[in-house]
Known about the structure:
This protein has helices at residues 10-19, 26-36, 51-64, 85-98, 116-124, 133-141, 158-163, 167-175, 192-201, 232-239, 255-267, 281-292, 326-333, 354-364, 380-392, and strands at 41-44, 78-81, 106-109, 128-131, 152-155, 182-187, 206-209, 220-226, 248-251, 272-275, 298-301, 316-319, 343-349. It is of the alpha/beta class and 453 residues long. The strands form 2 sheets. It has a 7-stranded parallel sheet, sandwiched between helices. The chain has a 6-stranded parallel sheet with strand order 8-13-12-9-11-10, with helices on both faces. The chain binds adenosine monophosphate.
Amino acid sequence: xxxxxxxxxxxxxxxxxxxxxxxxxxxxxxxxxxxxxxxxxxxxxxxxxxxxxxxxxxxxxxxxxxxxxxxxxxxxxxxxxxxxxxxxxxxxxxxxxxxxxxxxxxxxxxxxxxxxxxxxxxxxxxxxxxxxxxxxxxxxxxxxxxxxxxxxxxxxxxxxxxxxxxxxxxxxxxxxxxxxxxxxxxxxxxxxxxxxxxxxxxxxxxxxxxxxxxxxxxxxxxxxxxxxxxxxxxxxxxxxxxxxxxxxxxxxxxxxxxxxxxxxxxxxxxxxxxxxxxxxxxxxxxxxxxxxxxxxxxxxxxxxxxxxxxxxxxxxxxxxxxxxxxxxxxxxxxxxxxxxxxxxxxxxxxxxxxxxxxxxxxxxxxxxxxxxxxxxxxxxxxxxxxxxxxxxxxxxxxxxxxxxxxxxxxxxxxxxxxxxxxxxxxxxxxxxxxxxxxxxxxxxxxxxxxxxx
Length: 453
Ligand code: AMP
């Protein structure tokens, strides 16, 4: 199927051509016709499947129809609610790219920055608003935003909203929406609370499911490195001697930890920056821009960035520490191998993380190959012995559902506002079980260059 077959208007087709998109991804193919017909949608999909375009393209088309009611001219007609600033920015960039030949105005709002530029833009008039929940409620309470003319509402990454503790804010926003509207609901997983929220806000939705969380891992080449905790730094430097690794996204569990990795890398002459919730919005955006431009070779991120970062052709993800929630592993490595390209994920596992490795392998349904060909290799036996010893000493890291270990108390004084904090992992729910369930993949070996991000 081609985009031409989807009944899209010429300005959109032209923009998609500029983006280099020819074929819709499965989620786009399945969602766009239903959304254009005005139906509600329940999409079980995560980033990397093309879900942003799946809702943005038909929304732009629907909103381009002439509006009879001139009063709605200056009010917001479509709202996209998304959990993180990075995602919000990327979604707005998508509206900008796909809507470049249309006269619709869009705006992105999020916390952690001054509100003046945002309220000024709202005064000028906005058709499509992309927002994170905290800042949206804030500006609504101050009277800058009224949702009474919303025709289209998108709830993006609903499960992530739950994980991050935003679900009550989301419900408050929903309470202010007009009853008659079209709702598009996206979530990578469907925990009970999210399913019941979907049931209450959707009317006869069309259901679309692509690439369940556990299956995304399959197209990514994964390698596990057993290593002592104290050797992780040297192992990272050793791997980065390979100049074919042009850029890599390194995941650390804590903000403090990611700053430390950046320091070590810089000391070794490797350009690196950190991106996490304690960095100002500007610093985060700058770090992301530098990384995309390959000015910075290594971007070290905490999990708040895991779903938000969309870097075209990112070939390497390195898990410096294994996450205690197995789905997080899949989300992290899903930053590479996007849009059908291949990707490699290296993971470091020390004795205390052995349990996390077991959970991850159970979720993805495969044993991650172990690489022993490096100077810091720890044998499987040593890993097991260390794991048993750590367990006996009560030193294993908290399992899923518990708070992350070693909370970053050092920077509590400058604790970021709620909307900027690292996700509250305690709310995380299990993903749909491994292989099989309605699995549909989108492979395109020759993915055209996307100029959108
Ligand atoms: P998303 O799942 O929305 O985060 O999109 C994943 C990536 O795929 C983004 O870089 C998009 O720009 C890109 N993309 C989305 N749809 C298409 C398409 N039909 N053809 C090529 N690239 C696409």
